[in-house]
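Blinded run. Sample ID left blank on purpose so nobody reads anything into the name before looking at the predicted structure. Input follows.
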Amino acid sequence: MNRSVIGPRRVVRALTLTGIAGLLTLGACKLTSDRPKPFTLGIVSGDPQSTPAGTTPPSPLGVIVLDQYGFAAAGVTVTWAITAGGGSLSAQSTTTDVAGLTSVTYTAGPTPGPATITATVTSIGTLTFHVTIT
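Blinded prediction complete.
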């Protein structure tokens, strides 16, 4: 009769190797409990474009904000500013919707030439829109 017998040392060794393999597997996982936070700011509309002096360009100036996992970041404040060319904005700051989107309407200044408008999210950075006033 042929019997396989595993002694106590062999069982402990097998459990230890299994435990180490399990820890290595768990360590390789990217599990996280980090709350989503704004990570990426991108332009979705309005750059570049042209418009006659004193008018509104055809497309609003629009951005999207994504979190560090690549999902839409809702409730993020975007601050808008005209840095050249004059004119006006429909809002100085806006908040992203559930799709991570927000936009403003720009009305060109009275003088032909280049205009630049920035969109800033404090924790991410700034994007620049370019409008040519004709």
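Unblinding after everyone has recorded impressions. The mean pLDDT is 85.
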